[in-house]
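Course exercise 7: structure representation. Students receive a sequence record and must write out the corresponding structure in C-alpha cell form. The form below is the worked example handed out in class, using site-specific DNA-methyltransferase (adenine-specific) (844 residues). Read each field label carefully; the graders check that inputs and outputs are placed in the correct fields and that the protein name is recorded exactly as given.

STUDENT ID: A-19
EXERCISE PROTEIN: site-specific DNA-methyltransferase (adenine-specific)
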Amino acid sequence: MSDRYREFLERKMRLADATGIDVAAEEVNPALADHVRAIVPWALRGGRRAIFASFGLFKTSMQIEMMRLIGTKVPGKRLIVVPLGVRHEFVAEAAERFTGDHAVNLRFIRSDDDLEGDEPIYLTNYESVRDGKLDPANFVAASLDEAAVLRGYGTKTFQTFLPLFDAVRFKFVATATPSPNRTKELIHYAGFLGVMDTGQALTRFFQRNSEKAGDLQLHPHKEDEFWLWVHSWALFLQKPSDIGFSDEGFVLPDIDVRWHEVPVDHGAAGADRRGQGLLFQNAALGVTQAAAAKRESLSARIAKMQDLIGEDPEAHRILWHDLEDERRAIEQTVPGVRSIYGSQDLEKNERNAVDFKEGRFRDLATKPEMSGAGCNFQKHCAWEIFVGIGFKFHDFIQAVHRIVRFGQTRTCRIDIIYSEAEREVRQSLERKWRDHDALMARMGEIIRRYGLNGIPPDEIIGRSIGVERQEVAGERFRIACNDAVDEAARQADDSVDLVVTSIPFSNHYEYTASYNDFGHTDDNRHFWQQMDFLTPELLRILAPGRLACIHVKDRILFGSVTGQGVPTVSPFHAEAIFHYLRHGFQFMGMITVVTDVVRENNQTYRLGYSEMRKDGTKMGVGSPEYVLLMRKPQTDRSKGYADVPVVKDPDAYSLSRWQVDAHALWRSSGDRLLTPAELVQMGPTKIAKYFAAWSLAEVYDYERHVGLGEAIEAERPGALPRTFMALAPGSHDPAVWHDVVRMRTLNAEQSASNVEKHICPLQFDIVDRLIERYSNLGDLVYDPFGGLMTVPYRAILKGRRGQASELNPIYFRDGARYCRAAEEKLAVPSLFGLMEDEPAEAAE
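STUDENT ANSWER:
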C-alpha cells in the first residue's frame, strides 16, 4: 500500500471536532450541581454538542450557564428555543440559582423586533423560528430545549431548522428522550449540530431494505462504531454517578403503571371490502384505524376515567388526552378542571401550567404535545391518567416524566385507558418503552466507560486500515481478500483482457467495517478521490485496446435529506464517465439496463401514482442501470483494433445475429394481441413476459399501451400489480437491455444456503453478455470489487479465466466456494462429450 493511499485512508478516521471554547472550573457558577458544573465545560469545549440528560438533572441550568459563559468570552446574541409553556421554568431556575456575580437577564421574544442588544439571554418558542418571525442568523449561540422537533426527519420544521441555524457558531440541543423508538433519529441531531450530514450518516451506519423505502436498520458490524461516534458529540446521562458524582437527591421514584382495557361495540364492526359483515371490530393497526377506535370508545373511556378519579377525588391529577372531543368530554365530567389547548390564549395556557405546578387547582387536562415537554409538575402531583393512547411514544414518555422526576417523593401512579380495539397500539407502546430503556442503558454504559474525556485514539470505532491478504486459486481463477487498490497494484502491466465490475455507488452502501471500504466516504467527491487511486492501476493492467465494463446506477437524493423538498437524481453515471476519461480511458458508449419502475417506487417512494396525480412536476422517470464501455487506447493509433482483437467465429456469431444485435430488426410472428379478459386469466407474471415479447414484435403505440393497461384494470380491478410493472415494453435497441433477469444472481445460492446475502449483487445476464461480447476464450477477466465473485464465477463457465479482489472476508469465502464449484462443473464431462471422445480413444 502506497504512503499516499494510506494517508488518504487515515484521513477518514474522524469523530466530532471540538470547535468551541475552553472554560476553567472556577468560571462555572458554583451554585449549580456538581454534575452540571462538569458537563457545561465539556459542551462548551465541543461547541456543538447534545445533552441527553434524564428528567430532573438540571438541563435548564446547563443551558442558561452555557449561554452566560459564552457571553463572557464571545460577543454576540444568545438564544434558547423552548416549547410552548416552558419559559416560566427558565425564569424560575434563573431566579433560584443565578444570582450575584452569576446573575443573568432572560428576555422572552417573539420576533426580531424585540431584540435589544447582546446583554440578555433571549428565549423564544419553536413556532416563532419556524414561521420566520425570528432569524437565528442574528445569534452567535443557540440551544434547543426539548429538541424533539429534530426527530421529525423530513418534516417542514426539521427542514426549516437546518438551514436557518447553519451559520450559528455555537449550537446545542438538550432533551431527555433523544431516540425513543428508532436509533436512526439520533443522526438528525448530528445533522442540526453540523457533526455529520444526515444523508451521509444514514448511508454510513444503516443498511437499507431494497424492497421498501425508509426501512433502515443499523448495520450489525457498525453498532459499536455508531455508538462511539454518537458519544463523541452527545452525552447520555441517567444519573450523576454515570460521570462519577454522588446520586444523593437523584433517585427516581417508583412507578405504578396500570392498564385499563374498555370493551368496544362489536355491533358497529361494519363490513369488509367485499361487503361481508364482520362479527368483531378489527384491531386498530394503523393511525387512521386507531383514531376511529378512539372516537368509538370515547364514552367508555370517560366513564373509566370517572371511576378512577372516584378512588381519590381530592388528589391532584394530569388528565392526558389527544383529541379535542376528549378534552370537551373531560371538561363536562370533571368539576374544576382546567385545560391547556392550542386555540386557547398563550398567556392563559401558561397561567394554567404555573397554577397547576404550584398546586392551586386539582385537575389539569392537556395533550402530551402541549405540556409533555419541559413542565415540572412533581411538586404537588404524583398521578396521571391517560384517557387514551397513541403510537407516539416520544410524547407519551415525556408526559410520564412530568411527574416521574428527580425530586419526586411519592410513588407515581400512571393509569392508561385504551379500548379493546387498541391492543396493537398498547403492544407497540410497550415495545418502544423497552427499546427506550435499552438505548439509555447502552449509552449509560459508554459514558461510564469513557467519561467526558473522549475516546482514546487507539479505540476509534473498531475500524481497521489494511487487511490480511488471503488468496484462493484454481486452474481457471485466482481471487484475493484484499483492498482493491493494493491488489490491482500487484498485477503486471497489460495482463488483464477484460474488466467487468460494478463499482460501489459512492457512499450509498458500506460493505465492511474497514476504512479501506470505498463506501466509507463522505460524498461523491470523496468517493472519486479514492477511485483516483484505483483507476490508474486498472488502466495500467488492462491490455491495450481492451475494455473496462463499468456497471453503475444513478443515485436518488431524497428531498428530506437535501432540503429540496422533492426527490432528485445524482447523475452518478455521468460523473463516472468523466472520471474514467480523466484517467486516460476512451468512452465507447453505454448499455442501458432497464429496471422496473414500480419496484423502484417501492424502494424510493419517488414515483408514486398518487403523488403524480397531485403534481406531475415532481415525478421524474425510473432510474435504469448502465454499463459504461471504457476502452484502453490501443498501441497503434493508426488502426482501431486492439493489440489482441476480440475475434468472432462466423459459425458462432452469424450475420443474422449481428444484424439483430446491431439493428434489432425483430419481425412479428403474426400472433394476435390477447384480449384484456384473456390477459387477466394469465396472471401478472405471465402478462409481464407476454407483453414484453409482443411489444418487440409490434410497432409500438403509446396510447394502445396505456389503453391495454386501463382495459385490464377495468376487467378486474387490482389485476395490475402494485409491486412490479406487468406491462413493461421490450427494447429494440441493443444498447438497452430489458430482459435482464433480476433474480439470477449468486444471492439465490446464498439464500438457499442460509448465509449472508450481498447488498447489491450483479446479475448473471449482464456479466455473461459482456464476457461473450468483449473477450476471447481463455482470456483473463478481472473484477476489483468481486463481492460474491460473480465475474470470475461466470468467466470460468464461459471458458475464460477469472480474477478478482474483495475486502469483505465473508463474501470472499463464499465466492471462493462458487469458483471452485464452477471449475468442478467444467471438469465433469457430459454424456455427449464422452461419446465424442470414444472414436479418438478407439483409434489409439
